[in-house]
Amino acid sequence: MSARIIRGRLLSFRDDPRLAGADAWRLIDDGAILVENGAIAMVGEASVILKSAPPGAPIDDHRGKLVLPGFIDAHIHYPQTRVIGSYGAQLLDWLNKYTFVEEQRFVDPAHSAVVARFFLDELFRQGTTTACVYCTVHPASVEAFFVEAERRGARMIAGKAMMDRNAPPALRDTAQSGYDESKALIARWRGRGRLDYAITPRFAVTSTEAQLEAAGALLRENPQAYLQTHLDENLAEIELVKRLFPGSKTYLGVYERFGLLGPRSIFGHCIHLEESELASLARSRSVAAFCPTSNLFLGSGLFDKQRLDEAGARVALATDVGGGTSYSMLATAAEGYKVLQMNGQSWPALQAFHQMTLGNARALSLDGRIGRIEPGYEADLVVLDSRATPAMAHRMESHDGDLEEELFALIMMGDDRAVTQTYVAGVGVKR
Ligand code: GUN
Ligand code: ZN
Q: Do domains 3-70+371-428 and 71-363 have the same CATH topology?
C-alpha cells in the first residue's frame, strides 16, 4: 500500500458560501492529509495525522502554503493549444480562420498524442486536475487523449466532436458515422477507471437535424454519459442557428427538441439567453459554463451570473482554451470577477474558489469523488503560494491574516507561478 502525508494550510468547501455562509468551508492552518492508494484516508490537524499515519510514510511539507482540491475546468478544447491567442476575429470567423484549420491535423494519431501530452502537462502545471474536454471530429484525437489521461491516472471527461455541416470537408462526419464512432468510443472509454465520455455535438451550426437526433439517441442509450455543446455565445451565431433551424423559436429550443438537455449536459457560454431558454436550463438541471477569458477575447458578451443564480440554473466556470486565453483557473476567475463587475455584480473570493473546486465538481456530478478534502475523496490537490512572485509577496506584506483578502489577491495576481505542486491521485505531477 502506498501512503503519503501532505502537510499545509488545508482549505476545503462543503457547500457554496453564497448559500451556506461561514459553514460552507473549513481552514486548518497546520493541517495534514494522509493519502493511501490515491485516495484521502485521513484529514485533520498535522499533530494528530502525523501520529496516526503509518510509520515511514513520506511527508510533503507545504507548511504556510494553501492546499485545496485540484481545480476543475468545465469546458476546454485540447486541439486548440496552437490556436490560443490568434488575432482579431469574433466567433464564426475565428473558427474558420484558425480553429478549423488547426483541428484538421488531428486526423494524425501521432500529432494528437503530442498535443494530448502537452495539454495534460499544462493543465497539471496550472493546478487543474479534472477537465471536460472537446476533442476533434477524428476518433484518433479522442483515443490519444484518453490513452494519455489514463496513463496519468487523471479524472477526465472528453468526447469526439460531431459535426456534419458548415465545416471543411476534412472536419465533417455524417449523422451515421458520428453516431457509430461516438458509440464505439463510449463503449471503450465511458466509466473506464477515472475516465468518462461526453457526447459532443459541437454546436447547432455544425450539425444537421439528423445528427442532433443521433446525439439524442446516444444520450438516451447512455444515460450515464455527459453531453457538451455551445449555446448563445455570439449574436451572429444565434442568428445563423435561427436561420438553420426555422422550426425552433430559440437556440436552446433546437437542443431541447432533440432531447439534449439534462443534469449531465454542459452548455458553453450561455451569454445571450432568452427568458424561455433560462427557464429551460433551470428546469432541466442543465449546466451553463461561464468562460470569461473567451467571452472577452472573442468579444462575445458578458455572462450574467446573477440572472442565472436567481433563476436557479446551475453554473460552472471554464477556460474555453483556445477561445479562452489562459489555462489558469485563477486567471479565469480573475476575468470572471471583472466581467461581473461590468454588470454591477460581484464575486467574493470564497465563492470563486468554491466554484473552481466543489462547485465545478457538482456541476459535473462528481462531488462524491472530487472537489473536497475529506476521507474517501480522490487525492487530487493543488498547493498554492500567495507570495509566489515579488509583486505578490509585496502585496501580501500589508495582509493581516484575513483569508478572503489573501484568496482575492491570489485570484487577481496568481497564475501557474502560484501553483507550487499539483497532486493527481496523491502523486505530485508538476515538474
Ligand atoms: N462554438 C463552436 N465551436 C467553438 C469553439 O471551438 N470555441 C468556442 N469558443 N465556441 C465555439
Ligand atoms: Zn468552447
A: no
State the pLDDT confidence band at 1, using cuts at 50, 70 and 90: low
Quick one: average pLDDT of 286-313?
98
CATH T-level topology, domain 3-70+371-428: Urease, subunit C; domain 1 (2.30.40)
Give, for 230, the enclosing helix (H) or strand (E).
strand 226-231
- Segment 129-150 shows an average pLDDT of 98
**pLDDT (tens digit per residue) in 202-242:** 999 999 999 999 999 999 999 999 999 999 999 999 999 99
Ligand 1, pocket-test mutation among 233, 235, 294, 325, most atoms within 8 A of CB: 233
Does the pLDDT of residue 400 top 90, yes or no? no
Q: Which three cell numbers stand for residue 383?
A: 498547493
Mutate to test the pocket of ligand 1, among 77, 90, 234, 240 (most ligand atoms within 8 A of CB): 77
| pLDDT higher than threshold 90 for residue 399 | no
- Match 462575445 to its residue by C-alpha cell: 300
Beta-carbon neighbours within 5 Å of ion ligand 2: 268, 320
> Residue 171 CA: which ligand is closest?
1
- What's the pTM? 0.99
Which of 316, 155, 300 is closest to 228 using CA atoms?
316
Q: Where are the domains of the chain?
A: 3-70+371-428, 71-363
Which protein residues touch ligand 1 with a CB less than 6 Å away? 77, 91, 95, 99, 202-203, 230, 233, 294, 320, 323
C-alpha cell recorded at residue 384: 498554492
Quote the pLDDT of residue 62.
Answer: 98
Q: Cα 399 from chain centroid?
A: 31
In this predicted structure, the answer to whether residue 103 has a pLDDT above a threshold of 90 is yes
Grid cell, residue 428, equals 505530485
119 alpha carbon to ligand 1 midpoint, in Å?
18
Which atom of ligand 1 lies closest to the CA of 134?
6
Residue from 75, 81, 93, 99 whose mutation best tests the ligand 1 pocket (most atoms within 8 A of CB) = 99
User: At the top level of CATH, which class does the domain 71-363 belong to?
Assistant: alpha beta
Mean pLDDT value of segment 295-304: 98
Name the burial class of residue 235, with classes exposed (0-12), middle (13-18) and buried (19+) by CB atoms within 10 angstroms of its CB: middle
> Which ligand 1 atom lies nearest to the CA of residue 205?
2
Residue type, 132: C
On whether the CB atoms of residues 404 and 349 are closer than 8 A, the answer is yes
